[in-house]
Design brief:
This protein has 10 helices and 8 strands. The chain has 260 residues and is α+β, with helices and mostly antiparallel strands. Helix 8 (148-162) packs antiparallel against helix 10 (234-244). Helix 8 links the parallel strand 4 (132-139) and strand 5 (168-174). It folds into 2 domains: 4-45, no CATH class; 53-250, Aminopeptidase.
């Protein structure tokens, strides 16, 4: 015979709280809890991550390669990037090493509890495109929707505007990646064109958008002083991120020298 004390010993308080006890027999309650154990465990893990995380934005290190490999092989990340799922961890170690030593690559990561959960790169152009920076970003599936992508974007925008004096930032994004498009538009990027059948994903060719952003002080920028007041500074914008995501507590978000 199933008894309530036995059920309490087998299942977590989180599961017991979500179980519909009213009008249910103890056997029915136990069956419900068993079938939803995995769902509840995911809920507990997500709740723990959101309540316990402390975000550090820092430059890339060679020792981050294994975490980068994990990020780039998450299902949502594979869905939103051009990375092949067959790229090995050894190949990623070589890639990370090349990023660290290349002066034209400026790579930042988001770290929480000693684990890298997000990455963004700003690649400066060469020759007559020296004024242009190309951006690529990825956030671990388990940490998406928590403001980490916005923190990373604001970090490289600050670097581009106030330290590298880049005139133009650009990026590619799949046309069906609505969440990323909204983030980029919030960061002042505009859709400038559409590349048809740009990438093969899951056996289908998909389109992508070219998005661009001009330096706020550039005469062609709509927020140039000759048109209107410039947008909020990096610190003010980052503060807004933390207010929108109070569980994300920044430890550092300032550019530093790459650690070899």
């Amino acid at each position: 015979m199933t008894r309530w004390p036995e059920i309490r010993q087998q299942f977590s308080p989180f599961l017991l709280k979500m179980a519909p006890r009213k009008g249910k027999s103890l056997l029915a309650l136990a069956a419900f809890l068993s079938s939803h154990r995995r769902q509840a465990q995911v809920g507990i893990q997500k709740g723990f991550l959101m309540s316990q995380k402390r975000i550090t934005i820092r430059t890339l290190r060679q020792t981050d390669a294994d975490d980068i490999h994990e990020i780039m092989h998450m299902p949502n990340v594979l869905w939103g990037t051009t990375v092949l799922p067959s790229k090995t961890v050894d190949a990623w170690r070589k890639t990370v090493e090349s990023w660290v030593i290349d002066e034209n690559w400026h790579v930042f990561v988001a770290e929480t509890n000693g684990k890298v959960v997000g990455i963004i790169s700003l690649t400066v152009g060469k020759g007559r495109e020296r004024h242009i920076g190309d951006i690529a970003m990825a956030v671990h599936d388990a940490y998406q929707g928590q403001g980490i992508g916005k923190m990373l974007m604001l970090t490289v925008i600050d670097l581009a505007d106030n330290w590298l004096n880049l005139v133009r930032l650009e990026l590619d994004v799949y046309a069906d990646n609505e969440r990323a498009i909204r983030l980029y538009q919030h960061c002042d990027f505009e859709i400038e064109g559409r590349k048809r059948c740009d990438t093969l994903r899951g056996g289908n060719y998909i389109d992508s958008y070219i998005m661009g952003r001009l330096h706020p002080q550039h005469p062609q920028h709509p927020q140039h002083p000759q048109h209107m007041q410039t947008h909020a500074g990096y610190a003010d914008a980052l503060t807004q991120v933390f207010q929108a995501h109070p569980d994300s507590k920044p430890e550092s978000a300032e550019p530093t020298e790459p650690q070899q």
